[in-house]
Amino acid sequence: MPKIIDHDKRKQQIAEATWKVIAEEGIEQATVRKIAKATGLSAGALRHYFSTQSELLLYSMNLVSERVKERTMSKTYQGDPFDLVKDALSELLPIDDERRLEMEVWLVFSVKTLVEEKLRALSEDVYVEMKEGISAIIQLLVNLGLLKEECNPDEEAVRLHVLVDGLAVHHLLHPVSFPQQKMMDALEYHLKSICTF
Q1: What GO terms are given for molecular function (predicted)?
Q2: Which residues contact 83 (CB under 8 A, 6 or more apart)?
């Protein structure tokens, strides 16, 4: 009896192997041949799932975005509003091995979008989703009466978005000088500076 293959699961395994190759060797080394080897498939079998490298990269990067959204949507946010906001924003930061890998790959992918137009639309979509998510967090603070009166919600959403991106990049690029605790302390300091916690 022929083996039944779960094609969606196989595509995810290929995408995860792509992340690993990108994180360890860089996006330019994420060739079909190298990724096929990492997944234990032949290059021909891999091309059955993704006919081009761009198609594979798009799927792989989209999977990063989907996983972040799934984690965020599956959580039950309860308790202290400060911890709730910090926890929600932590989904966008490299606070564990899984998120670190996702962020490393996304950072490399983002640089690639500067020279490969086919990848830009996904990057823009994720940027807009992140912007909207952070704006929703600021609006939650407004609704709870926790954002300081002198703060402009729209401007604070922009500032928080830039801060979260910057924290992630600094921690990824300089983990010794800017360790995780410093990253989280900076986030906490900023939130306390704009809120009445």
Answers
A1: DNA-binding transcription factor activity; transcription cis-regulatory region binding
A2: none
Give the integer Cα–Cα distance in Å for 34 and 53: 11
CATH superfamily of the domain spanning 7-194? Tetracycline Repressor, domain 2 (1.10.357.10)
Of 96, 115, 67, the C-alpha closest to 168 is 96
Q: What mean pLDDT do residues 17-45 have?
A: 86
Residues in the chain, overall count: 197
How far is Cα 175 from Cα 26, in angstroms, rounded to an integer? 18
**Residue found under tokens 């609006």:** 139
If pLDDT is split at 50, 70 and 90, which confidence band does 4 have?
low
Residue 100 has pLDDT above 80, yes or no: yes
Q: Is 52 exposed, middle or buried (0-12, 13-18, 19+ CB in 10 A)?
A: exposed
Q: Tokens 């020279």 identify what position?
A: 115
Q: Residue type at 180?
A: Q
The owner of tokens 């909207």 is: 132
Q: Is 195 helix (H, G, I), strand (E, B) or coil?
A: strand
